[in-house]
Design a protein that fits this description.
Largest sheet: 7 strands, parallel
Strand order of the largest sheet: 3-2-1-4-5-8-9
Structural class: alpha/beta
Order of helices and strands: EHEEHHHHEHEEHEEEHEHEHHEEHH
Radius of gyration: 21 Å
Distance between the termini: 44 Å
Number of domains: 2
CATH class of the largest domain: Alpha Beta
Number of strands: 13
Strand content: 15-25%
Shape: globular
Number of helices: 13
CATH topology of the largest domain: Rossmann fold
């Protein structure tokens, strides 16, 4: 049995495609609702094959049930410190979470032989689920899989004592992570290449047969160009940049639809751009791209939207992936002088006009 933990609609899409690829294996997909304000009624479960169940839940409710009492406080402590438990304790936590709290219909035998798939192995929910398993597998989260984060001095000391010379932290660098499925496996960090493999489950037939109906994709969603927005930390000029991009599209006679990120409030864009098509934020952009009549250009500040679907879209970004380590400096400079963005916009539309 396969167990997936998702916190974004993109995770949900990839989990479905992975589960569909293995029709003889039971799969349960746990979808967090309160991270992207997901409404479970927006999905048509009847479109899924019989081997797949989707369980929607809120983090706050699960934490309240798992972390109550003395036992719960101990579980929380172990989750926070990523403790690796003996198999007997893993079984108890698996039974607590999946059978008693979620009440999913799985046998003890199924739980014992189940495989856990995560996307971000460091968030709090992943740490909790990991307590019930000896090992786990990772599926691509996005650009975070390709660029690590510097370790703090204390963390560098701990890793040095353990025999590692790494000064960076990466998704999947935990020894309990047995494999990492990436879309661009060849671009993975050198440290992780021994456990990285290519994503092999993005399938046209599966998307058409199951995913379009499950996500309730409107049949009239067929834009020429998409502006993919994103919630950007410590950036107060994003809306100015989006306005500049849309104005440049108009100047170049290019029609553009706006696809807000699922964590954003769509009303912000409806108010700012009342005359533009706004695509429902909770629909994976990749599905809109997939069912378009022709290849779509995705414009963004640095979004990974469309990654893996290059056959159906082209990504054109203001900030390239190799610049992400200096992203806060760039935003600081743009906040001081927003016109610094203009040269990047010119480059963006030169590239766009070549498509």
């Amino acid at each position: 049995m396969n167990i997936f933990l998702c916190s974004t609609v993109r995770h949900l899409l990839f989990s479905l495609l992975k589960a569909i690829k293995h029709p003889d294996e039971k799969s349960i997909i746990f979808m967090i609702c309160d991270q992207q304000n997901i409404d479970k009624n927006n999905f048509e479960l009847s479109h899924l094959p019989k081997n797949i169940d989707v369980v929607f839940f809120n983090r706050s409710e699960l934490r309240q049930k798992v972390y109550s009492g003395a036992q719960g406080k101990l579980i929380k402590l172990m989750a926070n410190y990523k403790v690796s438990l003996p198999r007997s304790y893993q079984k108890k936590i698996a039974t607590l979470i999946f059978n008693k709290i979620f009440k999913v219909k799985v046998t003890t035998k199924e739980l014992n032989s189940s495989t856990l798939y995560l996307y971000n192995d460091r968030n709090k929910m992943s740490r909790l689920f990991r307590l019930a398993f000896t090992s786990y597998h990772l599926i691509e989260e996005g650009v975070g899989n390709y660029y690590g984060q510097p370790l703090k001095r204390f963390e560098q000391l701990v890793t040095f004592i353990s025999g590692s010379k790494s000064t960076m932290r990466y998704f999947g660098d935990d020894k309990r992570c047995k494999s990492i499925s990436l879309i661009n496996a060849e671009k993975s960090p050198e440290l992780l290449k021994h456990k990285v493999k290519s994503v092999d489950f993005i399938n046209k037939e599966s998307i058409n047969k199951y995913c379009i109906g499950f996500f309730k994709i409107p049949m009239n969603t067929n834009p020429q160009c998409i502006l993919a927005t994103q919630p950007i930390k410590n950036c107060n000029v994003d809306m100015i940049i989006y306005t500049k991009i849309i104005s440049a599209c108009k100047k170049n006679n290019i029609t553009v639809a706006i696809k807000p990120h699922p964590r954003e409030d769509i009303s912000r864009y409806v108010a700012e751009f009342p005359n533009h098509l706004i695509i429902e934020s909770k629909i994976p952009l990749e599905l809109v791209v997939f069912r378009a009549d022709k290849k779509i250009n995705i414009l963004s500040i640095y979004s990974s939207a469309g990654l893996g679907f290059e056959k159906y879209c082209s990504q054109i970004k203001l900030i390239e992936d190799n610049e992400l380590e200096n992203i806060e400096l760039l935003f600081s400079q743009w906040a001081t002088d927003i016109n610094l963005v203009d040269s990047r916009l010119d480059k963006m539309f030169i590239e766009l006009n070549k498509k």
